[in-house]
Amino acid sequence: MDVVSTLVARFDAAIIWYFLALNTFYGFLILLSIPEIWKHWKITHSDNLSRYLTSEALPPISVLMPAYNMEQGIIDAVRSQLTLRYPKHEVIVVNDGSRDQTLARMIADFDLYQVPPAIPHHIPVQEVRAYYRSRTQPSLLVIDKVNGGKADALNAAISAARYPLVVAVDADTIIQPDALLRLARTFVVGKPVAAAGGTIRVVNGCTIDRARVTRTGLSEDFLAAVQVPEYLRAFLFGRLGWNRLGGNLIVSGAFGLFQRRFLLEIGGYATGHVVEDLDLVIRLHKHLREQGSDHQITFIPDPVAWTEVPFDLRTLGRQRERWHRGLVKTMVTHRRMLFNPRYGRVGLVAFPFFFFGEMLAPVIELIGYIMTAIGFTIGAIDANFALMFLAVALGYQMLLSTWAIILEEATFRIYEKWQDFVRLLLYAFAEPFGYRQLTVVWRLHGCWNAMRGLTHWGEMQRRGFGPEIGSDGEARATDAAA
Amino acid sequence: MNFAVLTLVAILQLVFVVLLLITLALGRMLSEWRTSVDDRHTERLTLASRDWLSGRRSAEDFAADIERARYSTVTAVLQRFGNQVAGQAWEDLVDAVRQTSWFDALKSRAHSRLWWRRLSATHGFAMVAVPEDAPTLESLIHDHNPVVRLGAVATIRRVLVETTLEAVLELADTQQRTVRRYVLEMLTLNQGLDLRLIQQRLDDADGTRQLRTLLNLVAGLGVPSFLDHVLPHAEHPDLEVRIAVARTLARFPHPRSAASLCSLVADPHWQVRAQAASALGVIGAREAVPTLGVAIRDPSWWVRMRAALALRRLGSHGTSVLEELTPEDDRYAYEMARYVLGLDHAAVAEYGGPSAVDYSDAIRRPRAA
């Protein structure tokens, strides 16, 4: 019994150290994020974006938008992309084998006409049925193809893009009108950038008019609102901190800018991945390292895109399960990067963090719960100690969330009403009680499904931005991944 | 790990959380108070500036109002009115504003150790700089922070003496394409740019980087007298210079431009051929139809597309060439011809307009060892 007690106690101690190390690293990311957000805030605050609007200096951009069964919102979504404030951009919509009236609606609304398929196929994709141009919107190209999933649709759009920069967006993501200007500004500053991601914010609770956010607000729905501190943490200090470490591994698939040539060099998005954006960025990091390129993959906080987060447990669970399943698959696929000095800070810091700190976290957390229970049962763990540890664990999470809210308040401060601000704080404090444990369960489910080799997307229930509730997706459907 | 350590961590966390909450609440209140003060100042200054615009208040009185407002508020109001007012009225205001404490703060910010203060100084100078500020502007153009440099470049709209021109061209030479284009664009906005000086530099330039910069500047200026100074560079050994020449010649619709572009359509590099084909369409060079008829059979997809678009832009002479192509003749040329013939006029204009392409973006130079 003594041996078992000792083992349990040592195991628990190891988990505590893992937990402290992980949270200390988060604290380190917070520290790193401060100068980053300060820099961006100062630039954003003082810059006059309108001077770039009339400039021909900014590189033209191709906006790539896959669409699957989006008949309800497709017209507003395309119009909102076409009217983004940018000197020169085209919009390429890929109808990924929709089984509803998505294409028909576009043909009618934009007066589309079919053009001969003299467009290069740099990346192999599912059969393209037709290319359409618009008589009313010269900068619109619509590609109609057989369903192949989001990655396949994006690859078709990358091949057809005419411009050196491409921005991948989801059809159900609302892009702030000046977001392209803000993303491309990094090129005017002269930084060698291979890819840049913007901030994704939660649109639930905001007022939408014709695919534009006209008033910001926090959702009344608990489940939607409790995800806001999560998004703030992920974007405002997570990715900003990684900027300083040179190892941003995520450029959101819902809104990310890439140099087209780099995407072509790595063969575009990998099909068959459920989080194709993470896989793409890791392959891009590898490619840049192998080529000895000094181009960076960076995160810029002020360009904003809005996404609808799940509002019911079932959908949220599916989404988180899919994200984690994709993370596991990507980490395993690229496991050779782990502690590989050939990939610099990405291989030595970022990848190990995602491997041990993100991928294995739910497994270790589960083991921790089990060992604590065993420890209690056999008397190897003191109850006061366990409670204190729990308090510290919750405290860490509250601190991180509060700090993310501070960053938000000190800079962009989109929730202007005091009521929203107070509720945001309350949600940040409520998050560790129950919600976090649920995410652990979903992520464990993701690990399990990854081991089983599942590759489906799962059905995503969405209310949509109009009055009707949209439901998109089945297996391999085009969907938003924040 | 003992209980005491955990307790200490928990206490520290609690203290931190409470401190953060207090900071958050105070920060929000402070921010709201500052915003309301700024709004009041902005409103007052806006009214004062309207009075000044309508002649009910002198520039000196307006400047006196400025004394009471915060630096950033004054800058914002001046920026707004700077976009609406020009000429002597604005210069009178500049004279008055330069006597205020706001301008003293501006000068001290220009030499601050903090980059964001220097950046804010560039925004101020972009509105109120005069030639005597040239040394300060020059140092800002040479600033080690790229954001400050970029802000300083905007000041050349107001002040461009030989030393600042030198600094700006030097900056353009050393920067990436996007920055270079932006810097040169700012130069073209300056009404007092000495064109003879630019011509002289273009004739004397020997380095690739200098030539590339000057040709891009000339393309932006579009002054007809530059044609003679551009054409000699069409045979330059560096492809980026030849691309720049082809792009620049798109601004000069002249038979000599067309002749030079026709020879560039036979260049060994596809980027030059594509740029030249595009330029031939932009200048409407009907004499180039036979050359473009050959270019549509080019091995490069981009050259074929540019040649086909150029032929479309040349009207019936060009479209007849496209219509006569058959699959047996050249399948790829035929496909491209069908594609471009299928586009409506708006799409052709959008695809093949003057600023549509810059194939210097597509150059891949080997990395230096």
SSE topology sketch:
The complex is a heterodimer of chains A (482) and B (369).
Chain A: H1 2-46, H2 50-53, E1 61-67, H3 74-82, E2 89-96, H4 102-110, E3 112-115, E4 128-134, E5 140-145, H5 150-160, E6 165-169, E7 173-175, H6 179-188, E8 193-202, E9 207-209, E10 212-215, H7 222-225, H8 227-245, E11 255-259, H9 260-265, H10 276-291, E12 296-307, H11 313-333, H12 344-359, H13 361-378, H14 383-410, H15 418-430, H16 435-452, E13 460-462, E14 470-472
Chain B: H1 3-53, H2 59-66, H3 71-82, H4 87-97, H5 101-110, H6 115-128, H7 134-141, H8 146-153, H9 162-174, H10 177-188, H11 195-204, H12 208-221, H13 227-230, H14 239-249, H15 255-264, H16 270-282, H17 289-295, H18 301-313, H19 316-324, H20 331-342, H21 345-352
Helix pairs in contact in B: 1-2, 1-3, 2-4, 3-6, 5-6, 6-8, 7-8, 7-9, 9-10, 9-12, 10-12, 12-14, 14-16, 15-16, 16-18, 17-18, 18-19, 18-20, 18-21
